[in-house]
Amino acid sequence: MKDSVNILFVCGYGVGSSVMLQTVVKKALAKYDFSFDMEHTAAGEVGGFTDWADIYA
């Protein structure tokens, strides 16, 4: 079993929406007792995270 959940936030337009969403989700998940790692990237870079990410947002 994994120690943490990996969440990847993807932005398609380069305006920072993935960073904003990551911030909101991080704040919401902070009250739960489980470990998670988060990254954000552009849509064109998603292929580099396919082995890492458990959840795409």
Molecular structure report:
- The chain is of the alpha/beta class and 57 residues long.
- The chain has one domain.
- It is built from one helix and three strands, in the order E-H-E-E.
- Helix 1 links the parallel strand 1 and strand 2.
List the helices and strands and how they pair.
Blueprint: E1 5-11, H1 17-29, E2 36-42, E3 55-56
- The portion of residues forming beta strands comes to 25-35%
Return the string of H and E elements: EHEE
Q: Helical region count?
A: 1
Instruction: Please state how the strands of the largest beta sheet are arranged side by side.
Output: 2-1-3
Structural class by sheet pairing and helices: alpha/beta
Helix fraction, binned, reads 10-25%
Mean pLDDT: 89
- The overall number of domains is 1
Biggest sheet features: 3 strands, parallel
User: Which shape, going by the Cα principal axes?
Assistant: flat
Distance from first to last alpha carbon: 22 Å
Whole-angstrom Rg: 12 Å
User: Segments where pLDDT lies below 50 for 5+ residues?
Assistant: none
The total of beta strands comes to 3
